[in-house]
């Protein structure tokens, strides 16, 4: 599989995403500078974490106007698989590829720690290697991960099973205490109605190797490979 | 520039009459204002090390692995596989008091630039912080600002802050310390130095534009504080981590392209220091034309342009003919870039503005010929009063449970989770051991190796005996690395002291250097980079001497990495090393008796070395499950930490300690050195004890992991009194949330 | 012309920064302070002499980039 990792000025998890796909999963990876206009030959697109344009106006607000985003939109419209992680998720929201917006964390602090998320929909291209209801331990690292959307959109997402990951306790209970940032409905990750665009705040690329003591994140990427019918 | 150089003007520039005379001698004339400014920053304590240099020379700086020792932007040490680590620690104390967020943020920015200027990609940051107690709103404001500033900069850069230490003591209320450490990895044959070699080569400015920020930051850092210091706010620089991230990527791309001769960041003293230091190292001169320097504000004078400390700027010397390629790369990363001069052969730093020469100084005079002082030193009159402590007058502990809880809640010992959760400590996916163990460990991708890092200094020990305190700091840092499975390969220091013009402060400094020297020579650890921060003093009150150490260790096989927490119920708990009567200078005396007195713990370097060799051997042979060094709060606190610091789950422990003649408090909370708590499967017990015996290290099975409480019996089997008996849930809560609770006071 | 633009979170959307400041004001003794909302203030020089045209441009800037209208509202004045 040819994975395209988009590099915005200020992206800082781009190398980490390349490392997982290339060195851990053996796929070919192309780093795509944000000024490129074409995604020819790419099978899946990753919008990595970081602080695109310093996040100085709003997270993701400036990156959505990067030249490459036009190609990403077309790619997504044509059914191509897109994953936005952390800042990548924020960019997808600003670009309108996913519904909603991010607010500052309830604590007002940047927060970096392991959290638990429950796989609420295991029938997606990004979760099919997981069991339904499975609890994954994945780290978060963000200051603006407090997901918000209006009640109508939320109801629609709930009805369409678009909420893929929700913050939960290690035992799998979705409680306010397990919510690290104040996200509406404990939302940690969502997909678009068509099911080919995923945005998630936790960083699966940070827990996909034995040497780092946790491989739960690998399941997200293995799901994608499975969906794309790639032999690993 | 027809301004007359008056006595007042010279004094305002923190230059002495003798220093001014020397300047006139060098130039053969009176300097103009721009030149006076340039001399004043380059000859400031901060840039010239004029009070410390004669002593720093005594430190060991070489070794088989050392590729670059002190004198460059950072030190470089070989780790094999064609790779090296590049690291340094630097202070940003004064700016962090005046404006905590920006002061700390730009401190991080500066140390990152020092490392990537050498051609290394930064992969880890650590921070050593000293604050006043958390009972005043002002101190809490400083803590919150500094932590947010470090987070704001490091997180945005995508360099993980993997560890550090935070100590609270009211002596730091008006002089907090912010010492930032950074480590990067580079190809051994691709190290870049700050040198302006090759006459005719172009000198290129790139990065941010120049504004009026921080003019005279370097002289501010060389001056004591008074009540007016908060009014000096305009001299604090503002950091732009996004710009620095672009600068980092641009630098690494420039360096990959075989385009550069030398490169240096514009840190303290900005354009002046970078140009004269690069020229001086190569024995050359530079013609610098200010006309082309990118500016943020109109109307800036040559004085301001040469002295500005605007952040995120670099100066490079390119190979002739490669200007266009350099400019293209800088523009790709949206950086300002301009050719501002060329290398000359006459050794003169000549500054032009619109075809007019505005400064003309021999580069070497500015960079290297600053004054050197052998300042007088003598121990302070109060030293004996500090060390003489009559222990008989202090009652032994009555309620050991309460004493242990008080220690665990003391901010210095309490969990620093509130701090490190604000730092991205996992980005770059190398972090094997996260903050909260004895040392942080990051793997080196593409190899089987890992690097361990720790920052340490017990400044109370240094106050009571600066020589011993410095030795103890080296020993503790090395011990922390050993507990992680790493062998020390190099050291960087950040020497924070008061006013060196005072003989008692100078004495602390000289003694600390001697202590570091003796310990480093014994352990064969070279000091490859460092920084001195004097004048940490307000209204005559000086900080405790704080020679902060950042030590780096190598783990040849990353799978042999160790952590401090207990793993499985039923494991043996084994104490390596002997417990002496060592209450002097302990956190316990401070918390329970409000005393910061006595002699610091006894340290024998041979014994220390044997204990470290022993734990390393146990880790490498896979015999043990955990290893944790006993430091602040003694064996009781160390055991509690082993129980509750694990990432997923806490463990209980039942332990029996058998005192000789020691007091109970000394047995539990004394800070005897060269002690490590390890845990091992009972099946390995005999082998572990035999290995220790072979190395002459005292070792005893003192208990077992298990249960829901930490229980400590004192005395032989006949004694059935539980001196300590606390549910792990209780100690974990008190220790884990203490900082958060204190900081949330209004 | 200069546009002076204010962007704040919409009424009804939790403003954690505003809440924290309100709390701090209260503890400093400003008992009458309520409903603190934190926002951004931006100044933009618009090279345009026709007020209606400038107005239309600034409105577009706000809609497109300066505010995220899912969570934020904006207002501006032209001087």
From TrEMBL, chain C:
Subcellular localization: Cytoplasm
UniProt protein name: Phosphoribosylformylglycinamidine synthase subunit PurS
Organism: Nitrospira lenta
Tagged with keyword Ligase: yes
Keywords (A to Z) from UniProt: ATP-binding, Cytoplasm, Ligase, Nucleotide-binding, Purine biosynthesis
Catalytic activity: N(2)-formyl-N(1)-(5-phospho-beta-D-ribosyl)glycinamide + L-glutamine + ATP + H2O = 2-formamido-N(1)-(5-O-phospho-beta-D-ribosyl)acetamidine + L-glutamate + ADP + phosphate + H(+)
Quaternary state and interactors: Part of the FGAM synthase complex composed of 1 PurL, 1 PurQ and 2 PurS subunits.
Lineage, highest ranks first: Bacteria, Pseudomonadati, Nitrospirota, Nitrospiria, Nitrospirales
MF annotations from Gene Ontology: ATP binding; phosphoribosylformylglycinamidine synthase activity
Gene Ontology annotations for the cellular component aspect, listed alphabetically: cytoplasm
Family from the record: Belongs to the PurS family.
């Amino acid at each position: 599989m040819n994975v395209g990792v988009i590099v915005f000025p200020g992206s800082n998890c781009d190398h980490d995403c390349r490392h997982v796909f290339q060195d851990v999963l053996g796929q070919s990876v192309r780093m795509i500078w944000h000024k490129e206009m074409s995604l020819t030959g790419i099978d899946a697109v990753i919008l990595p974490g970081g602080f695109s344009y310093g996040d100085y106006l709003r997270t993701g607000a400036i990156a959505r106007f990067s030249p490459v985003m036009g190609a990403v939109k077309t790619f997504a419209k044509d059914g191509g698989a897109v994953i936005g992680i952390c800042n990548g998720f924020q960019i997808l929201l600003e670009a309108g590829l996913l519904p909603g917006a991010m607010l500052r964390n309830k604590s007002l602090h940047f927060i970096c720690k392991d959290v638990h998320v429950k796989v609420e929909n295991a029938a997606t291209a990004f979760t099919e290697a997981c069991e339904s209801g499975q609890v994954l331990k994945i780290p978060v690292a963000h200051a603006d991960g407090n997901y918000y959307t209006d009640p109508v959109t939320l109801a629609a997402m709930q009805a369409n099973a678009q909420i893929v990951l929700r913050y939960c306790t290690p035992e799998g209970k979705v409680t306010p205490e397990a919510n690290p940032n104040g996200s509406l409905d404990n939302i940690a990750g969502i997909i678009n109605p068509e099911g080919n665009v995923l945005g998630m705040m936790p960083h699966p690329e940070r827990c996909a190797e034995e040497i780092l003591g946790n491989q739960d994140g690998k399941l997200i990427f293995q799901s994608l490979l499975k969906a794309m019918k790639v032999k690993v | 520039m027809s301004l007359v150089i008056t006595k007042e003007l010279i004094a305002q520039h923190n230059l002495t009459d003798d220093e001014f005379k020397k300047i006139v001698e060098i130039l053969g004339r009176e300097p103009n204002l721009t030149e006076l400014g340039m001399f004043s920053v380059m000859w400031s304590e901060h840039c010239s090390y004029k009070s410390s240099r004669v002593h720093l020379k005594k430190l060991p700086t070489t070794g088989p692995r050392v590729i670059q020792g002190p004198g460059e932007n950072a030190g470089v040490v070989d780790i094999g596989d064609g790779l090296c680590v590049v690291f340094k620690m630097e202070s940003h104390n004064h700016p962090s008091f005046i404006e905590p967020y920006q002061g700390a943020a730009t401190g991080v920015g500066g140390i990152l630039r020092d490392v990537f200027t050498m051609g290394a990609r930064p992969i880890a940051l650590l921070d050593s912080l000293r604050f006043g107690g958390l009972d005043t709103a002002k101190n809490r404001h400083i803590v919150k600002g500094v932590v947010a500033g470090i987070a704001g900069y490091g997180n945005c850069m995508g360099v993980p802050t993997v560890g550090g230490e935070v100590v609270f003591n009211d002596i730091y209320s008006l002089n907090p310390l912010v010492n930032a450490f950074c480590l990067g990895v580079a190809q051994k044959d691709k190290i870049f130095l700050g040198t302006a070699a090759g006459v005719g080569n172009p000198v290129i400015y790139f990065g941010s534009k120049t504004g009026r920020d921080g003019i005279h930051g370097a002289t501010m850092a060389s001056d004591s504080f008074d009540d007016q210091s908060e009014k000096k706010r305009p001299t604090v620089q503002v950091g732009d981590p996004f710009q620095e991230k672009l600068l980092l990527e641009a630098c690494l791309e420039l360096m990959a392209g075989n385009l550069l001769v030398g490169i240096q960041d514009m840190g303290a003293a900005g354009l002046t220091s970078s140009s004269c230091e690069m020229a001086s190292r190569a024995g050359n001169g530079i013609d610098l034309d200010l006309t082309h320097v990118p500016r943020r504000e109109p109307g800036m004078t040559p004085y301001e342009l040469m002295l500005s400390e605007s952040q995120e700027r670099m100066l490079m010397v390119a190979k002739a003919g490669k200007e266009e390629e350099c400019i293209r790369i800088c523009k790709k990363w949206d950086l300002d870039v301009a050719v501002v001069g060329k290398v000359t052969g006459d050794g003169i730093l000549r500054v032009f503005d619109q075809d007019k020469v505005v400064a003309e100084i021999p580069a070497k005079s500015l960079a290297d010929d600053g004054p050197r002082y052998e300042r007088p030193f003598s121990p302070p009159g109060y030293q004996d009063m500090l060390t003489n402590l009559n222990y008989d007058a202090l009652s032994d502990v009555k309620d050991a449970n309460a004493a242990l809880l008080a220690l665990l809640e003391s901010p210095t010992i309490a969990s620093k989770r509130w701090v490190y959760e604000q730092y991205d400590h996992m980005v770059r996916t190398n972090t094997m051991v996260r903050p909260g163990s004895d040392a942080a460990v990051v793997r080196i991708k593409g190899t089987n190796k890992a690097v361990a890092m720790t920052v340490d200094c017990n400044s109370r020990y240094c106050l009571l005996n600066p020589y011993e305190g410095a030795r103890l700091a080296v020993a503790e840092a090395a011990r922390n690395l050993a507990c992680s499975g790493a062998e020390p390969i190099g050291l960087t220091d950040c020497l924070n002291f008061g006013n060196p013009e005072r003989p008692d402060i100078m004495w602390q400094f000289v003694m600390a250097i001697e202590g570091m020297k003796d310990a480093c020579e014994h352990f064969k650890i070279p000091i490859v980079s460092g920084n001195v921060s004097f004048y940490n003093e307000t209204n005559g009150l000086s900080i405790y001497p704080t020679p902060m150490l950042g030590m780096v260790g190598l783990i040849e096989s990353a799978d042999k990495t160790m952590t401090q927490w207990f793993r499985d119920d039923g494991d043996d708990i084994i104490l390596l090393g002997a417990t002496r009567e060592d209450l002097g200078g302990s956190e316990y005396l401070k918390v329970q008796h409000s005393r910061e007195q006595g002699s610091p713990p006894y340290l024998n370097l041979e014994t220390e070395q044997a204990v470290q060799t022993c734990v390393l051997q146990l880790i490498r042979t896979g015999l043990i499950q955990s290893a944790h060094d006993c430091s602040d709060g003694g064996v009781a606190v160390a055991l509690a930490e082993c129980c509750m610091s694990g990432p997923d789950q806490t463990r209980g422990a039942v332990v029996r300690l058998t005192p000789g003649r020691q007091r109970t408090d000394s047995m539990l909370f004394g800070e005897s050195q060269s002690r490590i708590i390890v845990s091992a499967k009972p099946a390995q017990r005999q082998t572990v004890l035999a290995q220790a015996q072979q190395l002459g290290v005292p070792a005893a099975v003192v208990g077992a992991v298990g249960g829901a409480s930490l229980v400590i019996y004192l005395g032989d089997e006949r004694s059935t009194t539980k001196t300590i008996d606390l549910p792990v849930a209780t100690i974990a809560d008190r220790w884990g949330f203490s900082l958060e609770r204190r900081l949330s006071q209004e | 012309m200069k546009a002076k633009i204010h962007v704040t979170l919409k009424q009804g959307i939790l403003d954690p920064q505003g809440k924290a400041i309100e709390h701090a004001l209260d503890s400093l003794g400003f008992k009458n302070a309520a409903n603190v909302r934190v926002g951004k203030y931006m100044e933009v020089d618009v090279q345009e002499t026709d007020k209606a045209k400038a107005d239309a441009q600034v409105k577009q800037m706000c809609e497109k980039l300066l505010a995220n209208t899912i969570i934020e509202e904006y207002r501006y004045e032209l001087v």
